[in-house]
Design goal:
D-Maltodextrin-Binding Protein, domain 2, 2 domains, seven-stranded mixed β-sheet, 41% helix, 18% strand, disordered N terminus, NrtA/CpmA_ABC-bd_dom, cell membrane
Length: 334
């Protein structure tokens, strides 16, 4: 958490509008907390919290809450490490990879699970995993959550990527571009989160590996709430309030799924200039479970898979990655 320079704030606010910009009221010398997230269905808890002002309510009038969105986990983790954000939602893959390399990051809550689907382009003609040899698949990033899930599933079938000596080629890219890459024949398969999976299916793609089939599909958090160990230690009360606001947001989603779908779609459109068909959002919500639960044993098993697939150079030990202390609002007020 950082002290804002009021002059720099005024200049920045008057010259450029960005998604991470502070509110237009006079922040003065208020402390600032920056929350990061991605514009996709896995990250709906952040969109709900922003819409409903849950972070603002929890943190109080003396703190100015701002938001910043990211295209991928790598960019998010850089921002967390440099202090550009204080907490936020990200996939567990980038968290584990960075933690294993010495990054100061802590998982303080789950956010969502499920939602990862492997689809094949209509042009590829692929009907099953038996036809993956010499094909090209795409994921949002190397070693990202969806990449590890897919490659773990395939490894059990004796299929590996070219990165580790197999024949299945791998590229990365923004999920919003996958349909164009399918149509051009650049890629044949995509391991993709919702709502992009439902979007691709609506355009003719075929589901090859569904959420309940892919490795860790229903047990692994595909999005977690993280912060730094330094901030957790130095301002534990702040983190408890952030965690409690996040928990309130997850509860709202489960109590109000239809309103949450509308808020999510509005938010994604505002950020990406693309509005999703309501049926696609509804289908995506069917595959995603919003929960604050985090199973540390599953996190460790997923990390072991990352090591087996050579995304990590050393066998990981994540016993202290997931915070187990009580971070509820009642605990923060004690």
């Amino acid at each position: 958490m950082k002290r804002k320079n009021s002059l720099l704030f005024i200049l920045a606010a008057s010259t450029i509008l960005v998604l991470s910009a502070c509110s237009s009221d006079s922040a003065g010398d208020k402390e600032e907390v920056v929350i990061g997230y991605f514009p996709n269905i896995d990250h709906v808890p952040a969109m709900i919290a922003k819409e409903k002002n849950y972070y603002e309510e929890a943190l109080g009038d003396d703190i100015n809450v701002t938001y910043k969105t990211f295209p991928d986990g790598g960019a998010f983790m850089i921002a967390l490490k440099t202090g550009d954000i204080d907490a936020g939602l990200v996939g567990p893959g980038p968290v584990m990879n960075n933690y294993a390399n010495g990054a100061d990051v802590k998982i303080i809550s789950g956010a969502s699970s499920g939602g990862t689907v492997v689809v094949a382009s209509e042009q590829s003609g692929i009907e099953s995993v038996d036809e993956f040899d010499n094909k090209t698949f795409i994921t949002p990033g190397i070693g990202c959550t969806h990449d590890v899930q897919m490659e773990t599933f395939l490894q059990d079938l004796g299929i590996t990527s070219a990165r580790i000596g197999g024949t299945l080629k791998h590229v990365t890219g923004n999920p919003a571009q996958y349909q164009g890459m399918f149509e051009s024949g650049q890629v044949d398969l995509a391991a993709v989160p919702e709502p992009w999976a439902s979007t691709l299916v609506a355009e003719g793609a075929k589901v090859i590996i569904d959420t309940d089939e892919i490795a860790y599909g229903t047990t692994l958090p595909n999005t977690v709430l993280v912060t730094t160990g330094k901030l957790l230690e130095e301002n534990n009360d702040l983190i408890k309030k952030i965690s409690s606001a996040h928990e309130k947001s997850v509860q709202f989603i489960n109590d109000n799924p239809e309103e949450s779908q509308t808020i999510a779609n509005d938010s994604i459109e505002q950020i990406t200039n693309q509005r999703l068909d309501e049926s696609i959002v509804a289908n995506a919500f069917e595959r995603v479970t919003y929960t604050t639960d985090v199973d540390a044993e599953v996190v460790q098993a997923f990390a072991d898979s990352s090591y087996d697939l050579k995304f990590l150079t050393e066998k990981p030990e994540f016993s202290e990655l997931v915070v187990t202390e009580d971070l509820s609002l009642s605990s923060a007020q004690e």
